[in-house]
Amino acid sequence: MIFLKAFLVGGLLCVVAQLLMDLTSYKVTPAHILVGFVTGGAILSALGVYGPLVDWAGAGATVPLTGFGHLLAQGTIAGVQEKGLLGVFSGGVAATAAGITAAVVFGYLVSLAFRPKG
């Protein structure tokens, strides 16, 4: 059942992004979607709305960009509780360091394996 929940929530988030790009008179680009979803995930997490969705849908809520925003917000909250005001600057980065490092390393490895066509 967890796979179905993850598929439905992750798919719904992707549908929302695609609809935003296709149906808006102002062309919403993938960059707009990226920033909006990360920001939206952080705001929903800070309001306490995104955490229950993560508990219910698992990877369907944590893998999309909104999940990255959620992780940033939770890391910042934990950093502030642990280090005070300085936690605002270090908490989010510490919480997302593994994902950011993986993206950079795998991106570099893929860039070595493939050549762009231009």
Quick structural gist:
The chain has 6 helices and no strands.
Description:
There is one protein chain. This protein has 118 residues and is mostly helical. The chain has one domain. 82% of the residues lie in helices and 0% in strands. The chain contains six helices and no strands. The radius of gyration is 16 Å and the shape is globular. The N and C termini lie far apart (44 Å).
Task: Please tally the helical runs, counting DSSP H or I stretches of 4 or more residues.
Answer: 6
End-to-end separation: 44 Å
Q: Find the structural class using helix and strand composition.
A: mainly alpha
Count structural domains. Answer: 1
Rounded average pLDDT: 92
The share of residues in extended strands comes to under 5%
Report the order of strands and helices: HHHHHH
The low-confidence runs, each spanning 5 or more residues with pLDDT under 50, are none
Largest sheet: none
Tell me roughly what share of residues is in helical segments: over 70%
Q: Strand tally, please?
A: 0
Spatial shape: globular
Radius of gyration: 16 Å
Which characteristics define this entry?
mainly alpha; 82% helix; single chain
